[in-house]
Amino acid sequence: MTGRPTPALLPPSLRARLGLVAALAALVVVALGALYAGHSRPGRVDRWIIPPTADSVRPPWRHVAVALDFMGEPAGSAMLVMAIVAGCLLLRRPRAAVLAIAGAAMAVGTATLLKHLVGRTIHGADNLSYPSGHTAFFTALALVVALLATDRLGLGRTAGTSLVLCAALLAGGAMGWAQVALGAHYPTDALGGWCTALAVIPATAWLVDQAADRMAGPGQREPR
Q1: Average pLDDT, the chain
Q2: Which residues share a beta bridge with 121?
Q3: Where are the alpha helices (DSSP H) in 37-56?
Q4: 172-219 pLDDT tens trace
């Protein structure tokens, strides 16, 4: 116990902006879910982007898509989460380590629940597709890393928000592309997964901060 304030996952400078982003993302998730509930075919936007087939891309890009897809599978995702948790602990950021685990679980859990509620399918009635859990997971971890980097670099409101959103866009775009390229999801499924992470991670980070502050002594709480 050093008596130093424990850095918050969501610093005061970012809370309002990321809270607004989370609210807007949640609205997009709900709107897309209502629009495609019970569907088993690509929508107009999906067809405009790319027809979802099993051979949308060919080598060498297909190898890239397969590698990205592996990061969202149980073995790959477990290794990725463990690596991020280890990095957070080495940097003495236990809150970020907790968020890496809790945030990934919340993002995937929320996506799984929504899949059963929405009931959209692809390539057969057993393949629930909306939203993309792979995209939600990968975006969630990118958000965790971006929040950690914002803290370590001491970024302000504009720079911090930009870093967080750019990280989410790059990670979500990469995994979303892989899922569509492999024919596992419609493009709007990937968008829904991306927005799921944007909605879930700020809320989870806030909850982790609240729980950590209650457990910490007065001298270890992040100034509000």
Answers
A1: 91
A2: 128
A3: 44-49
A4: 999 999 999 998 999 999 999 999 999 999 999 999 999 998 887 655
Determine whether 30 is exposed, middle or buried from the number of CB atoms within 10 Å of its CB (0-12, 13-18, 19+): middle
What gap in Å lies between CA 52 and CA 187, rounded to an integer? Answer: 8
Q: How far apart are CA 72 and CA 89, in angstroms?
A: 23
Percentage of the residues of the chain whose pLDDT score is greater than 70: 92
- DSSP 8-state symbol, 218: G
For residue 17, is pLDDT > 80? yes
Q: H-type helices in the chain, by residue range? A: 12-36, 44-49, 61-70, 74-90, 94-118, 133-153, 157-181, 187-215
Angle at 81 between CA 179 and CA 104, to 5 degrees: 65
Please provide residue 94's backbone torsions phi and psi, each rounded to the nearest 5 degrees: -65, -30
Contact 169, 191 (CB under 8 A): no
**13: confidence class by pLDDT, cuts 50, 70, 90:** confident
Burial class (CB in 10 A: 0-12, 13-18, 19+), 67: exposed
- 38 by DSSP, 3-state: which? coil
The DSSP H or E segment spanning 117 is helix 94-118
Q: What phi and psi values does residue 122 have, to the nearest 5 degrees?
A: -145, 135
Gyration radius of the chain over CA positions: 18
